[in-house]
Design goal:
CATH class of chain B: Mainly Alpha
Shape of chain A: globular
CATH superfamily of the largest domain in chain A: P-loop containing nucleotide triphosphate hydrolases
Distance between the termini of chain B: 26 Å
Strand content of chain A: 15-25%
Largest interface: A-B, 62 and 50 residues
CATH architecture of the largest domain in chain A: 3-Layer(aba) Sandwich
Order of helices and strands of chain B: HHHHEEHHHEEHHHHHHHHH
Shape of chain B: globular
Oligomer: heterodimer
Radius of gyration of chain A: 24 Å
Radius of gyration of chain B: 22 Å
CATH architecture of chain B: Orthogonal Bundle
Number of helices of chain B: 16
Chain lengths: 528, 375
């Protein structure tokens, strides 16, 4: 399982030490007196649920934020970073979770943004920059032209550019906050190779990922945070995934997803021969003659890699994307000509992949986000009835167990998991017959993940048909009654999740199974 | 939260009054009070009933335009055509009152005043509808679509009037078209009709925004159009309606002005769109959409109106008036940005994952980008 890290690093001096770090935002204590070390030539991984304090600590270490109290030491000398630029000058670079790129500029310009190489005349030395970029791309095994615009790259390549930017800084401490969220399996492998190289050069690496197996695979030392405190640390060789999950959630939790009692009824959603063209290249079909059905009370998983056409399929079924040909029916009625709104009225709703971009209205409160899709139902005469609305909002909050101080709180004050539950709650209030969910657990913590799947199971028992997309194999197998695999726009296999193992499913999806092999015995403890 | 027009926003937490919030959110009102106090001390005439009524009458034009503009700005757009629509609707009214020459039938028709009003408002609505269709169907940026309409409506007004002014619109009893001048010069309970129209429009828009799904839809479109679409909000219909309402507001102003002067000039209303935008912005609305209230917009219109008239009364030169008005607008928006930042640090930190705090404001892309590059 955790192999690869046996080779002894050249030195393991403490580069950066944080003592007694406390960070308070208003009344909330995000960090409660944390002591933490970063050693050179080692990968230190931070584990913890959303809001556990890991990103806050990294923001303090990289100079983005100042601690409320506590001290930092660099090479044994006390230090205070005035800004992230200041920290970068001291050799501390951070790859942010959300990409910090200017899409209108080229790969080269992004990598050197603010640190341009200059000719003796003071103009930008593009040739020298290009050379460095080519070397970096060679190292990252990515064939990217330095002059191409970042906007024209796919998300994974953009992440590579972000990583290249941090490498170009020649940092001594490199913090990677979710560096692999958009990378393919191959790209992740390359990144891990680069990390090994950097380690042997003595660079200290701090790694954060929601992908626990992956993080454990790459790390030398694991540090677990919970509720703003550092609760456990250990050498990676001494621990396994179960240990990490146990420390993260506070107690070993074996049975996380609720039981699915399959009592499927009539087919409620039927898709026949659906074809969707790639908006960027209309001659190519991203969804290629897909037929599937979802019955009442059934939870169906659509498993596949990013780019398999899953999102396009979901959006086409929901009426968001134009369809080339094919038929979509809900309860036997052809709804192929209806728009999103009419489909919601008939009982078909979509919980989108990216809740910040497509799910939430940041200016509205939690309650008003939840009531948005069903607001036409809260009328008294021609006016909105605040009372009916408030009552329905309370029902919605209770049903999905959204944790919020008040329905009037800003939606942004919720954690990622609770925001996602709010989006689901919004669609449930429209009383759907079929609910589509695209990556319902993206970027949320283990606890909230389990809650979401048990919520779906519970709704299915009351007759809701559920179709969800995921690229997490554990969630595919443990969350569904039926598992459909999508690969390059086609449905390639269908499984009963109780009778299939991970390898079969992953092989069907065309996934590079190398990485999976190692962690196969060690599968997500949380999802077992 | 700021999108909610509900009461009690000054006591955000636990019933205790938060003076910082009062000061920041009430800044337009404070500015308004300051303006009154300063000019009242400079001029005995300023606070007389006659002057207050006359200033409010001036405010009414801008306020009606600004209320329509508020709706457009809430969706994240802008309407540059309202000034031209003011001119166009006035000229349409003028030409109808002067008699419609139906040469085919060899008669000249003199429509009744109510017909004139309906037709003029319909012309404003039509201009707005064209704006709305350009924005929703043809995906033209609102700035450009309404810029085009600004030229077209002005051109249409000049064509209809042949570049001249329609004088003497009071009508003649024997033609049955008298009464037009009541709109601008009539009074009810001692208050000019224009002010009543402003109050009426404000009430209608406030109800629309706070008590109907339309209002909630509009705020959600301005906040996050993609999320609104996926929640089944009829985005295109709402956006089109917003431009139609703005055009109708502009037409109303055109009628009031033409009636007040009993004359319609095709050049009427130049630059009015900018005053309307200024009022909305001073009132705390975000040009990126999703934030703004009727109350704020009204206060914004009063700040501009009472300031301008006050400067006239105390004899400040017209040139200085412009400089001062400009400074007030910029100061208001600068304060607004400061408040937004404050809100963000208050609510954005803490419980949500720190990474998400930055991703929370996709609409404020410029602000976010500059913040990110500073990071």
């Amino acid at each position: 399982m955790v192999s690869a890290q046996v080779s002894a690093p050249p030195s393991t001096d403490v580069v950066l030490r944080a003592t007694g770090i406390t960070k308070r935002y208003g009344g909330v204590e995000a960090l409660k007196g944390v002591d933490f070390e970063i050693r050179s030539g080692r990968v230190t991984t931070l584990f913890g649920e959303n809001g556990a304090g890991k990103s806050t600590l990294m923001k303090i270490v990289s100079g983005v934020e100042r601690p409320t109290s506590g001290a930092l030491e660099l090479d044994g000398e006390p230090i205070r970073f005035a800004s992230s630029d200041d920290a970068l000058d001291h050799g501390i670079a951070i790859i942010h979770q959300e990409l910090n790129l200017a899409p209108n500029l080229s790969v080269r310009d992004n990598i050197f943004l603010g640190r341009e190489l200059l000719t003796p005349f003071g103009s930008v030395d593009f040739a020298a920059e290009d050379k460095v970029v080519r070397e970096l791309m060679e190292r990252l095994e990515e064939d990217l032209d330095p002059a191409v615009k970042v906007a024209d790259l796919r998300l994974g390549q953009q992440q590579i550019v972000e990583i290249a930017g941090a490498l170009a800084a020649d940092a001594r401490v490199l913090i990677m906050d979710e560096p692999t969220s958009a990378l393919s399996a191959n790209e992740v492998e390359v990144l891990f190779k680069v990390i090994e190289d950097l380690k042997s050069e003595g660079v200290a690496i701090v790694y954060i990922s929601h992908h626990l197996e992956e993080a454990l695979h790459v790390t030398d030392r694991a540090v677990v945070f919970r509720d703003g405190e550092l609760v456990a640390e250990a050498e990676a060789a001494d621990i396994d995934l179960g240990w990490v999950v146990e420390k993260m959630v506070g107690a070993a939790d074996e049975e996380v997803f609720a039981d699915l009692a399959p009592n499927p009824g009539e087919a409620v959603l039927e898709v026949e021969g659906l074809v969707v063209a790639d908006p960027q290249a209309p001659e190519r079909n991203v969804v290629d003659h897909v037929s599937l059905r979802v019955r009442a009370g059934e939870v169906v998983c659509l498993y596949g890699l990013m780019g398999a056409g899953r999102t396009e399929l979901m959006e086409a079924v929901a009426g968001r994307m134009p369809v080339v040909s094919g038929k979509v029916s809900l309860e036997g009625e052809d709804i192929g000509r209806l728009n999103v709104r009419d489909r919601i009225d008939r009982g078909l709703g979509l919980v989108p992949e990216d809740r910040q971009r497509d799910g939430l209205v940041p200016q509205l409160s939690v309650g008003r986000n939840i009531s948005l899709a069903s607001i036409g139902d809260f009328m008294r005469g021609i006016f909105l009835s605040g009372r009916i609305e408030d009552r329905r909002i309370d029902e919605g909050l209770a049903k999905t167990r959204v944790k919020t101080s008040s329905p009037k709180a800003p939606i942004g004050s919720l954690s990622g998991g609770n925001q996602q539950k709010a989006v689901i709650s919004k669609m449930l209030l429209t009383e759907p017959t079929v609910l589509l969910l695209d990556e319902p657990t993206r970027g949320i913590d283990v606890g909230a993940r389990a809650e979401i799947y048990s919520l779906l199971a519970q709704q299915a028992q009351q007759g809701l048909g559920v179709l969800y997309v995921t690229s997490e194999i554990g969630e595919a197998i443990n969350g569904s009654n039926r598992l459909i695999v999508m690969h390059k726009g086609r449905l390639v296999a269908e499984f009963d999740p109780r009778e299939v193992d991970r390898h079969t499913v992953m092989a069907a999806s065309g996934e590079n199974a190398d990485l999976a092999d190692e962690s196969a015995q060690n599968q997500m403890g949380a999802s077992q | 939260m700021s999108a909610q027009a509900g009461a009690g926003r000054f006591r955000a937490r636990g019933g205790k009054i938060d003076w910082n919030t009062v000061f920041l959110e009430g800044r337009a009102l404070i500015a308004f009070v300051l303006i009154i106090v300063i000019f009242a001390s400079l001029s005995d005439h300023y606070l007389t009933t006659t002057n207050l009524i006359s200033m409010t009458r001036h405010v009414a034009f801008n306020a009606v335009l600004a209320l329509g503009m508020l709706l457009v700005i809430l969706h994240g757009g802008i309407d540059l055509s309202v000034g031209s629509t003011v001119g166009l609707s006035g000229v349409v009214a003028g030409s109808l009152l002067q008699g419609l020459d139906l040469s085919l039938l060899d008669i000249v028709a003199y429509p009744a005043v109510w017909v004139v009003v309906v037709v003029s408002v319909a012309v404003g609505a039509l201009a707005g509808y064209v704006n709305g269709v350009m924005v929703t169907r043809f995906r033209v940026a609102p700035f450009v679509a309404t810029l085009g309409m600004m030229y077209m409506a002005r051109g249409a007004a000049l064509l209809i009037a042949d570049g001249r002014t329609f004088p003497q619109l009071q009508g003649e009893p024997e033609l049955g078209n008298t009464g037009f001048s009541v709109i601008g010069n009539g009074r009810l309970l001692g208050i000019p009709m224009g002010v009543w129209i402003m109050i009426g429009v404000a009430v209608v828009v406030a109800i629309l925004l706070t008590r109907t799904p339309f209002g909630r839809w509009l705020y959600s479109i301005g906040g996050n159009q993609r999320a609104a679409e996926l929640s089944g909000v009829p985005v295109n219909r709402v956006v089109r309606s917003v431009y139609v309402i703005s055009g109708m507001c502009a037409a109303l102003v055109g009628l009031i002005l033409a009636s007040e002067l009993t004359a319609a000039t095709p050049q009427t209303g130049q630059m009015y769109e900018l005053n309307a935008i200024a009022a909305v912005v001073i009132g705390g609305a975000a040009l990126s959409g999703g934030r703004g209230t009727v109350r704020g917009t009204l206060i914004g219109a009063f700040v501009i109106g009472f300031l301008t008239d006050g400067l006239v009364i105390v004899g400040v030169s017209e040139f200085w008036q412009m400089v001062i008005t400009g400074a007030v607008i910029v100061a208001a928006v600068a304060l607004d940005q400061f408040q937004q930042r404050l809100n963000r640090t208050r609510s954005g930190s803490g419980r949500s994952g720190p990474g998400e705090a930055a991703a929370k404001q996709p609409a404020d892309d410029k602000a976010a980008a500059s913040a990110a590059s500073g990071v």
